[in-house]
Amino acid sequence: MMVSLPILSLLLGFSAATQYPSKSCSSQDDSPRFTTVTRGPYSPSARSSPIYSSSSQAPAPTAGACAPYWLENIKHQGAAAFNSDSTYQVFRNVKDFGAKGDGRTDDTAAIQRAISSGNRCAPGVCQSSTTTPAVVYFPSGTYLISASIIDYYYTQIIGNPNCLPTILATSNFSSTRGLGLLDGSPYQSTGKTGFGPTNTFFRQVRNLIFDMTNIPANIAATGIHWPTAQATSLQNLAFNMSSANGTQHQGVFIEEGSGGFMTDLVFYGGLNGFNVGNQQFTTRNLTFHNCVTAINQLWDWGWTYKSISINNCQVGLNMSAGGPDAVNVGSITLIDSSIKNTPIGITTSRTTTSKPDAAGSLYFENVKLENVRTTIFGTNGTILAGSTGPSVIDAWSDGHRYTSNGPVEARGPISPSERPATLLDPSGKYYERSKPQYSNLPLHKFLSVRDLGARGDGATDDTKALNSAILLAAKTGKVLFIDAGYYRVTSTIYIPPQSRIVGEALSSVILSSGSFFADINFPQPVVKVALPGERGTVEWSDMIVSTSGPQPGAILIEWNLASYGAVSGMWDVHARIGGFVGSQLQVEQCPTTPNITITASNLDTSCIAAYMSMHVTKFGTGLYMENVWLWTADHDLDDARNNNTQITIYTGRGLYIESERGVIWLYGTSVEHHSKYQYQFADTRSIFMGQIQTETAYYQPNPDATIPFPTNPALDDPVFSYSTNSTLPANNGWGLRILRSSSILGYGVGLYSFFDDYSTACSQPGAGARCQGTIFSVEGGALTYGVSVYNLNTVGTRSMVTRDGVQVASFADNVSGFVDTINVYRTE
Ligand SMILES: *[C@@H]1O[C@H](CO)[C@@H](O)[C@H](O)[C@H]1NC(C)=O
Ligand SMILES: *[C@@H]1O[C@H](CO)[C@@H](O)[C@H](O)[C@H]1NC(C)=O
Ligand SMILES: *[C@@H]1O[C@H](CO)[C@@H](O)[C@H](O)[C@H]1NC(C)=O
Ligand SMILES: *[C@@H]1O[C@H](CO)[C@@H](O)[C@H](O)[C@H]1NC(C)=O
Ligand SMILES: *[C@@H]1O[C@H](CO)[C@@H](O)[C@H](O)[C@H]1NC(C)=O
Ligand SMILES: *[C@@H]1O[C@H](CO)[C@@H](O)[C@H](O)[C@H]1NC(C)=O
Ligand SMILES: *[C@@H]1O[C@H](CO)[C@@H](O)[C@H](O)[C@H]1NC(C)=O
Ligand SMILES: *[C@@H]1O[C@H](CO)[C@@H](O)[C@H](O)[C@H]1NC(C)=O
Ligand SMILES: *[C@@H]1O[C@H](CO)[C@@H](O)[C@H](O)[C@H]1NC(C)=O
Ligand SMILES: CC(=O)N[C@H]1CO[C@H](CO)[C@@H](O)[C@@H]1O
């Protein structure tokens, strides 16, 4: 998304020179007397035996024996298809740029060369670009740095996962260049970060240790500064900070943006492990040891914390920013986590009279405690006592509840969600699984699609070559490496069961084109994962599916695969529709037309770019999706004016799930700017959502959701009727529509409507949420049950939830700053 929001202006004054004020820990001394409570073991009512275990990374070999990593040694043939420099290098090994990794040589300049060479998109100079992607690879070693490494747009920074390389700061580390050992978007002289924080997409950092222990404890050192947005991830990183009394170190610092996903991070020491604020984020498997405050929440709308382990800290999660008169934190969802040997679990500033009314909303479920003096500490002392011995809090919430009726201002225990056993691991936690990196597979277990004849040059028709490479890899049990490139396809790409496919630099793009995908009444999948009825598993990561030119009949991903007893996954696989070189759907072709009334007859049909982003059919089941962004571009990433110029691209539907069995996990997914809906679930069940996020198309209601896509009853399309009554809310697409479905669990749901025909006046604070009438629809009468949504945040929408067409919750009852927040919504 690309709006700048008022709340951010509070933080824009922040710069590298003005460090975030360090906080005093003295409030611990005011903590209330020690209290003990013991609760029974966690026992969600619907639990029976789970069917699989949450898997982890392959264990790293013992020190000294560092196994080679296939990515380091595979032939490097990835290319930037639409970069005019034919010698442009996608894969960069930092050692080829002069880095020594010997722990003695200052590698700062060499690492920076590896990132910047090739005329790439630099912060402060370039807003965004898709033509200069890079993998910056670190072999094992210790890389000494004396100043910040500055990240560029569209960069994957990857270390050898078999023995994590260490980025070691010198004792005289200079912070004049940036904020942090790695600065994802350094502050410029303008006082703003280099890349617009809500437009900083397509980047990753994984498999590294950031060691700050040489930097004196009293210096406010930062591991990673990461003000980013969708399609970004941090994975498998450790932060080693000073544990000295008075330490000012922090691990990850985020002050703005619209994220995003992070997982498998470990923090040692420091004042704050996490010091973060952003519209929304999904974060899981974070472990904190010996931090003063494990998580300091600066602000948010919604943030989902899953599988968090906090050990030997002073404070677990401080969400009291702003104080009761101006609560900064919209909502926090914390599940399947533990807090141990930490005097204060959570501090909040929410009270019955705090402002804004619905802010500071907190939901937690299945949280283990051990030796925690106070679980929740409020402005006037203990809100929820702690526990000396081990105990579990099944579920507890603080905020606006809509259960049998609402709103009810509620604080206290609540019955936990009824968790379908099919979604759980053996310990009763929701199943989770990190992106496979194949660290223990030898190089000969990989095939390169380019070796097998696919060109990926953006021009050649690669349909045949890609299809046969995928089949060969599946048949021979190999992982298919899709080298960076744009693979133009003119009919469907079929991914059979047992496929394992991995892309490069988030720039391995399947690009549909031509007449096969041109019929709005006869849509075709671009990528079809299994045929209906096929069983098995598929692993697919780090890729993008896109369209080129008008493709009104393109379904980007169709998922038919049935996985039972094992789980299939999509990690960092995104749909990107329009807004990049090669799409033929840029500002030249598809400008916005806010001052022209768009009708079926004057609508520019050459900008109808997809029928649907993703369809999980009746057959598809056992699907794990993590960090998946289905994006219809709202602006041009390769705008020649370097100004993120907005564009109008029409796509019909976002993510449609009609799986009969369900069993689908959505960790850190977002779906944006489709016409009829972003998410729609029909006749399905057992779906876990851990922070989902949507945006309504910016052009709506000009035109509204009735055009250009005809209603397809076979897909249970919502029926909109065109309204000429200007006092009625317009027919914009749904953010989330649930019909005839059960056991739908939303742990963090953000449904945003910022615009009315490209004007944001309708979503400004105090404007009366005028962008959209309704955004979240629960339908199907008694056939829909077991829907639980925690921390629903909406923007610009009058009615936050409707049940069978009747308003359940009005925004006016749940104002929470820029957003409106409901803490708990449950159907019967
Ligand atoms: C910083 O320390 C390194 C040794 O760790 C030394 O080589 C270098 O000269 C120092 N730089 C400055 C600017 O003091
Ligand atoms: C952290 O740094 C200390 C001091 O350099 C070192 O002893 C320790 O092994 C490091 N821990 C990790 C996890 O890197
Ligand atoms: C930490 O430092 C403060 C003041 O600098 C001092 O009062 C306190 O006793 C110290 N704590 C420990 C555990 O050393
Ligand atoms: C959590 O992250 C740590 C650190 O990367 C990793 O060792 C562990 O396997 C992860 N756990 C799971 C369940 O993935
Ligand atoms: C929590 O953070 C606030 C600043 O947002 C600070 O004033 C307060 O002291 C912190 N509370 C604790 C217990 O550290
Ligand atoms: C907290 O304490 C203050 C000062 O004693 C009091 O005015 C306020 O009403 C209390 N708030 C709550 C929620 O108890
Ligand atoms: C559209 O209309 C508004 C107000 O009527 C005007 O301010 C704006 O300049 C117009 N935009 C264009 C692109 O013509
Ligand atoms: C860049 O876009 C902004 C609005 O998004 C506009 O005000 C400004 O004039 C544009 N600048 C250029 C150089 O096009
Ligand atoms: C428009 O809708 C409003 C609200 O439902 C209604 O009161 C009004 O009569 C309608 N106007 C027309 C012209 O139908
Ligand atoms: C239930 C509840 O707290 N409702 C409040 C919603 O917000 C408005 C304005 O902020 C209050 O007036 C209501 O009391």
From TrEMBL:
Domain (Rhamnogalacturonase A/B/Epimerase-like pectate lyase) ranges: 91-318, 446-513
Region (Disordered): 23-59
Bias (Polar residues) ranges: 23-38
Entry-linked InterPro entries: Pectin_lyas_fold, Pectin_lyase_fold/virulence, QRT3-like, RHGA/B-epi-like_pectate_lyase
Domain of life: Eukaryota
Composition bias type Low complexity, residue spans: 41-59
UniProt keywords, alphabetically: Lyase, Signal
Signal peptide: 1-17
Coiled-coil blocks: none
Molecular function terms, GO-annotated: lyase activity; polygalacturonase activity
Any Pfam family the entry gives: Pect-lyase_RHGA_epim
Gene3D superfamilies per UniProt: Single-stranded right-handed beta-helix, Pectin lyase-like
PANTHER family: PECTATE LYASE SUPERFAMILY PROTEIN DOMAIN-CONTAINING PROTEIN-RELATED, POLYGALACTURONASE QRT3
Annotated protein name in UniProt: Pectate lyase superfamily protein-domain-containing protein
Species of provenance: Clohesyomyces aquaticus
Source species taxonomy: Eukaryota, Fungi, Dikarya, Ascomycota, Pezizomycotina
